[in-house]
UniProtKB/TrEMBL annotation, chains A, B:
Source organism (scientific name): Penicillium olsonii
Record family assignment: Belongs to the peptidase M20A family.
Peptidase M20 dimerisation domain span: 222-317
Cross-referenced InterPro entries: Amidase_Cbmase (IPR010158), Bact_exopeptidase_dim_dom (IPR036264), Peptidase_M20 (IPR002933), Peptidase_M20_dimer (IPR011650)
NCBIfam families on file: hydantase
Keyword annotations of the record: Hydrolase
Name of the featured protein: Peptidase M20 dimerisation domain-containing protein
Transmembrane segments: none
The keyword Hydrolase belongs to this UniProt entry's keyword annotation: yes
């Protein structure tokens, strides 16, 4: 926990309380702050006698060798980048837990058959470059290196001091901080026996039930879109509503509709980014661009929400400007598609057994009730590693279920419990 | 008309057709382009033997002396700044008409009792600095110089290449292009006998009725607000709708409601600027700022729309986040208030007589039907001059009633008719 906050010195975000650690984080992927924490990560893992490699997406792999060079390492992985108004736990906990495991193993002189690795994945958040988990996606050969290298940072985040005036691509940003590695980004070049990830739940289930550990069995589906609404600029003071093709008004109706449709199917639909042009008080905006994030427990449900919204958005666009025969148009671009995932039973078993063991001396009658199976609402790099190697995750509770917020918080106790579980899970897996 | 397009060389906007003049304008107030056209304006009016002064708001007054030094000049005024995606007529026509009048008077050797002046008012649009007509407002002593000098440029427009990275204030922008004059900005230091303004209608009434001239008798009321919605940043993938205080969702509902309420009272309500923070695909925005422009034919109607929207927006904010006991809040700031205006009967009469005379040889039976009284939907510097001196305006038709758009257009014929009417109106007023 000391180290956890130590690593947060690079990229303090918003201060929300008086304690030294009462700040959020603003460490966008491949920013100067991200470079500093990466340098620290490499130095620290080297001091722990790891072999460190950096691949073409800037993913950093630190491996503590095992007895047998022919057995690939079992990895603990997560990410050190954050949201623009992020917290101190999302991702950071998972990487720091890995370092803690390495230290403990060194301290105990623990030997493993295969090595034990810690990986820091690049741009997991998708906050600066709008594809989440993109670098584990390239590693899994689910996303092409060319596509990933060419991806541009989002305009809203580009206005932060970390960004240049012209939008950076992932490749230019990797070069700028000197983290464009030479190792090919692939599970073939950086093989793993398995991938475990410790994360805060980011939702309210564990904390509201007073449970200690979530054994993550699955991850819900999601799709990210960029949409443009094309209407017509005109004067706000002289243009009757019937004579407008107001792209922002169409947007407002679409956003209201998106929640209705998603809710009716037990799904979520959210807009995080919106830009209206030209952006003048007395001009009706003729162009609106926005992001749409649709999620649901089943891939088919997300597809259904999309299908219904495509029809509804077309109808909303057609109505706005019909009076002048120049209705709004709406264009969709799919940026990212992550179908629902079910994790590997062997990994789930290792986590379940480890969790049961770790909580077994808790002062309650039924300690097993402190551990529960859970589905992840958020995406994680484990989604992509699961395409290539046995994978699963461990959740700990977080305050109010709040995440992507400066006040994101988990107790030191819960963090320590999580680290104990992941340590045991890795050792159990190695011994299987 | 040649001159009209000549002066457009500084600040070409979006090209929409193949002809050399088929572009819009992007000449934000106090930009480099604005400086160039100002320099041209001063040089041109000096060549026409005018005395030129610049006041503390950068307003430029060019006066062709009359017979009597003790009689203040009758002015023709408008503005050379444009919207970010503006056209070639809004404001520009009015200033260029003034220059055309000066030329014609010189050519004809016409003498007047008082002088004849042309004024270019600064930042009429309110597009860069979000108070429209601010500099005629200071001149009329309706807005304080301190407030105007301290006004910051809007963020959406600040991202245009004309602006520095830190937002400029009006004062710093005036200094930067060397147009912070020494003459106090006041009707006392730059007196006028009267103010006439020629403008495109910016609405559909004249063009759809096939009429040539609008005798503007009044200007509708409007109020500009800046609103903030304060919610809570949170994760889009893990936060149920009931657990959100989604400031952008609240915004969407407010915008939909604003149109309903305004329409029910025969008014307009429009949002031109919106910003959502932090601006990341997978973070529910916790902060939204937007502009709200409410207009209506009567001051009281605008006040009624505001009153109803204040209640409705509070209710919408209260509903969003109620489930977590942390509902959204909404804050209003009034940036600008322009009550309905009725112009001066003497000026209206001069314009009516001049218009009737100019159209009298048109090839229709009832030439008087080509001229009609009209209310202005947009604000103009004449609103503020009318507080201190007799004022009125002349409208000509524009294509589709479209304005604040690159394709804004009036025929050369209609522009020439407008110039003839304003020339006669000024001479008639001088002779009264
Ligand atoms: N865990 C997390 O916040 N990941 C970011 C990707 C997502 O939006 O789910
Ligand atoms: N004429 C004009 O577009 N003026 C700008 C002020 C307004 O929004 O009405």
């Amino acid at each position: 926990a000391k180290d956890l906050h130590h690593s947060c010195q690079w990229g303090y975000g918003i201060r929300w309380g008086d304690n030294p650690t009462d700040t959020g984080m603003q460490r966008l992927a491949l920013s100067e702050e991200d470079k500093s924490v990466r340098d620290w990560f490499i130095q620290t893992t080297k001091e722990l006698k790891c072999n460190v490699t950096v691949d073409q997406m800037g993913n950093i792999f630190a491996v503590r060798p095992g007895r047998r060079a022919d057995v690939p390492a079992t990895f603990i992985g997560s990410h050190l980048d954050t949201q623009p108004t992020g917290g101190r736990y999302d991702g950071i906990l998972g990487v720091l837990a890995g370092i803690e495991v390495l230290k403990t193993m060194n301290d105990m002189g623990l030997e493993t058959k295969g090595g034990v690795g810690v990986v820091n994945w690049t741009n997991e958040e998708g906050a600066r470059f709008p594809v989440s988990m993109i670098s584990s996606g390239v590693w899994a050969e689910c996303i092409s290196l060319e596509h990933a290298h060419g991806l541009k940072e989002v305009p809203t985040v580009a206005s932060l001091p970390t960004a240049a005036s012209a939008p950076e691509t992932m490749k230019s940003a990797l070069q700028k901080i000197n983290y464009l590695g030479e190792t090919p980004c692939s599970y073939k070049s950086s093989p793993m026996a398995a991938h475990f990830e410790l994360h805060i739940e980011q939702g309210p289930h564990l904390v509201s039930a007073g449970q200690r550990i979530g054994v993550v069995t699955a991850v819900q589906a999601y799709r990210w879109f960029r949409l443009n609404i094309i209407g017509r600029d005109t004067h706000t003071g002289t243009t009757a509503f019937e004579h407008r093709a107001d792209a922002l008004y169409a947007f407002a109706r679409m956003m209201v509709r998106a929640r209705e449709v998603a809710a009716s199917k037990g799904c979520l639909a959210s807009v995080g980014i919106v830009e209206a042009k030209p952006g003048s008080v007395n001009t009706v905006p003729g162009l609106v661009s926005f992001s749409l994030d649709i999620r649901g427990p089943e891939t088919e449900l997300v597809a259904k929400v999309e299908e219904e919204l495509r029809a509804d958005f077309d109808a909303i666009a057609a109505a706005e400007g019909a009076g002048i025969g120049k209705p709004c148009r709406v264009e969709w671009t799919l940026d990212f598609d992550s179908p629902a995932v079910i994790f590997h039973q062997d990994c789930i078993d290792c986590v379940q057994e480890s969790a049961d063991a770790v909580v077994s001396d808790a002062p309650v009658a039924d300690t097993k009730s402190l551990v529960r199976p859970i589905m992840s609402g958020a995406g994680h790099d484990s989604v992509f590693t699961s395409k290539r190697v046995p994978t699963s995750m461990i959740f700990i509770p977080c305050k109010d279920g709040l995440s992507h917020h400066p006040e994101e918080f988990s107790t030191a106790d819960d963090c320590a419990t999580g680290v104990s579980v992941i340590l045991q899970a890795v050792v159990r897996y190695d011994r299987k």
